C-alpha cells in the first residue's frame, strides 16, 4: 500500500510550503536588508534542490551522475556570470 501513496512527493510539497512560508515571513517581519536577503537566498537554493530531487526525479535514473554534473556546471557558469557582471559594472575593475 505504501507504493500506491506518493509519500515522498507529499513530504516534498509540505516542505516546499514551509520554505515558502519562511520566505513570505521575510516580507512581513521588519528585518534588515542583509538578514532578509540571506534568508531569501537560503530558502531559494533549498527550494530549488527540493524541486530537482523530489519533483523532477533527478537522482532516480542510472545516469544521475551526469545529471548532477550538469547541474553543478550550470551553477558554476551562473556564479561566474553573476560575479563577472558585478566585477565589471559595479566594482569598477
SSE topology sketch:
Layout: H1 7-28, H2 33-55, H3 64-89
Summarize the structure in words.
The structure is a single chain. The mean pLDDT is 88. The chain has helices at residues 7-28, 33-55, 64-89. The protein is 76% helix and 0% strand. The termini are far apart. It has 93 residues and is mostly helical. It is built from three helices and no strands.
Count of individual helical segments: 3
Hey, roughly how much beta strand do the residues contain? Answer: under 5%
Give helix and strand order, one letter per element, not per position. HHH
Q: Which overall shape is indicated by the principal axes computed on the Cα atoms? A: flat
Give helix % range.
over 70%
Class computed from helices, strands and strand pairing: mainly alpha
Give a quick account of the main beta sheet: strands, pairing sense, barrel closure. none
Average predicted local confidence, pLDDT: 88
Report the span from N to C terminus.
Answer: 61 Å
Radius of gyration: 18 Å
- Contiguous low-pLDDT stretches (5 residues minimum) are none
- Strand tally is 0
Amino acid at each position: 500500500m505504501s507504493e500506491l501513496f506518493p509519500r515522498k512527493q507529499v513530504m516534498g510539497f509540505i516542505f516546499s510550503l514551509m520554505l515558502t512560508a519562511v520566505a513570505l515571513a521575510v516580507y512581513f517581519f521588519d528585518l534588515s536588508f542583509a538578514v532578509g536577503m540571506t534568508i531569501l537566498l537560503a530558502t531559494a537554493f533549498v527550494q530549488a534542490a527540493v524541486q530537482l530531487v523530489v519533483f523532477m526525479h533527478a537522482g532516480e535514473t542510472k545516469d544521475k551522475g551526469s545529471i548532477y554534473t550538469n547541474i553543478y556546471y550550470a551553477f558554476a557558469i551562473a556564479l561566474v556570470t553573476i560575479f563577472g557582471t558585478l566585477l565589471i559594472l559595479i566594482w569598477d575593475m
